[in-house]
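User: Quick sanity check before I run a bigger batch. Here is a single chain. Can you write out its predicted 3D structure?
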Amino acid sequence: MKNEDLQSIINNLGSNLEFSSEASEFLNVLVPKEQLHSVCNQLKTNPNLKFNYAFCITGMDWGKDLGVIYHLESTEFKHQIVVKVMIDDRENPVLDSVHDIWQTAEFHELEIFDFFGIKFNNHPKLRRLFLTPDWDGYPLRKDYVDEANMIVK
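Assistant: Done. Predicted structure follows.
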């Protein structure tokens, strides 16, 4: 299915969805954070889309906003899209978990929480994954300062 066809279907799954190709072969969809779970559920269950595989879920710091990027594939139809969601609250970034839609998201959400501090509502066991529980801060944020390993000249 061509990106134009995907966009036509996906455009009816939510409101205020934004689309781009961003010099990419994949259709990029920016979803409002309040609609993330609903839109993702429809992406998986819609019989014309069947995005049943979340093959990459990544945290992102765009400077002003934090967010998550979901790379999705339909293993049946062989089409792929990129779903992006942005959070403008850096002090308390929260999204709904999609682990109940794609089981692989459970691990990715732990990693994103650990390194970016994004909390996921309804995650079964949100906790630090790689860093120690007493670690201060989120090292993949652009404003993170690692004072313990600073080189002073």
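The chain has one domain: 3-149.

User: Great, the batch can go ahead then.
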